[in-house]
Structures are given as C-alpha cells and as structure tokens.
Design a protein that fits this description.
The chain is mainly α and 157 residues long. It has helices at 3-17, 21-26, 31-49, 58-77, 80-87, 93-99, 121-155; strands at 104-105, 117-118. The chain has one domain (3-155). 70% of the residues lie in helices and 3% in strands. Strands 1-2 form a two-stranded antiparallel ribbon. α1 runs antiparallel to α3 and α4 packs antiparallel against α7 (121-155).
Length: 157
C-alpha cells in the first residue's frame, strides 16, 4: 500500500476518532490541551506508519515523531486554517461568529430589488465556512505529513 494511505489513516484516526469535542474546541486556547491532542495524534500516525520504518535508527524515529508533532501543534494551537481564511478574505470562523446571524440583501446576488433579504443565510454561511475550514486544516496537516515523510526518507538514506 502507498505511504499516503497510511498517513491518511493515521491522520483520520488521530484527528477525528481519538479527539473528543471538548479537546477540539479548547486546543486553540490552551497549550496543554493542544499538547495532549497532538501527542495522541502523533502516536496514531506513528502506529500507522511504523510499517515503513522497520529496523531504523532510533534517531529516525525521534525525527519522524518531531516532524509529525511540531507542525500539527502549530496548525492546531494557533488555528492556522482560520488565519489563512482571514488572510485571503475568505470565510473565516471569526467572520461567521460576528456576522453569521445576519441576513443579506438580494442585491448582493445581482437582483435589482433590494427590498428583499435572504433569510437563514447564516445556515449557508456556517456550513460553507465549516467545509472550507476543514478542507484547509486537513490539507495543511496532510501536506506536512507527506513532505515531512519525504524529508525524513531523504535525510536518512
């Protein structure tokens, strides 16, 4: 099987199956919660990728642990996906929390009659914001895993 499949499975197990809601909510505000989550996450990824690191030097295992741990901690603790969405003026969580309850005028969609508003827009905004955030966050994690593994195999050839 391809290494990416093992990375993906380790990521899914560590970031979704083994992360309770309380941890997901608090990891952006607490170093301790983020550390605990990333420790569990890194352990899951290492268990799935151990097949590709048989009989290696102990320093390689330590390097792989750090390659998985450090970027994941930074991405989750500082909510880098949300910062990226703010940077590109995208659909950030902060914007949703501030403006998600507001209706929007139809004219925003090109209609000429601005006397009507689209109600329940907050549902669409919240759903789309969530999808975009999850995609950016998971893509960031998986890219770090993929390129980190490539770096590791290059360093320890």
């Amino acid at each position: 099987m391809n290494i990416f499949v093992y990375l993906l499975f380790g990521h899914i197990v560590g970031d979704f199956f083994l992360q309770p809601k309380s941890m997901a909510v608090k990891k952006g505000a607490s170093n301790w919660v983020a550390f605990n989550h990333v420790f569990i996450y890194t352990t899951a990824v290492l268990l799935f990728t151990n097949y590709f690191l048989p009989d290696r030097h102990p320093l390689e295992y330590i390097a792989w642990y750090l390659i998985v741990f450090i970027p994941h901690f930074l991405i989750d603790r500082f909510s880098l996906a949300d910062k990226w969405l703010n940077f590109i003026n995208g659909r950030s969580l902060e914007d949703f929390l501030e403006n998600g309850h507001k209706d929007i005028p139809i004219e925003s969609y090109g209609a000429f009659d601005n006397s009507h508003k689209i109600s329940n827009y907050h549902i669409l905004r919240g759903g789309f914001t969530t999808i975009v955030y999850v995609m950016v966050d998971n893509t960031s994690h998986l890219m770090c895993l993929w390129f980190g593994f490539k770096l590791l195999t290059h360093l320890f050839q």
